[in-house]
Design brief:
mainly alpha
Length: 121
Amino acid sequence: MPRVKRGTHRRASRKKTLHQASGYFLTKSKLYRAAQEAVERGLKFAYTGRKQKKRTFRSLWIVRISAACKQNGISYSKFMHGMKLAGITLDRKVLADVALHDDAGFRMLTEKVKAAAPSAT
């Protein structure tokens, strides 16, 4: 079996890691071993952060919809139940945008929901 020297591949992989670590504090951006640990840790946080971002945005949308619902005299849960009964299939992202930017449109939606679910008032 021939002898393999990993010169170029090793250099490229280390260079990539150090490039990812640029901007880190002190040795974490200069020395390979410290940089590798910092980059792996950072990538782990980035992965979980992408999942948390979805959660936080959904909760923000719910808060916005709930605030607009209260202004129109209906609770959030009754509004969402009425949406299902009325056959309106808008997701929370779109509903939050309508609630934030189009008061008349959201008021029209709440009227349709109240008509579809009489117990929603």
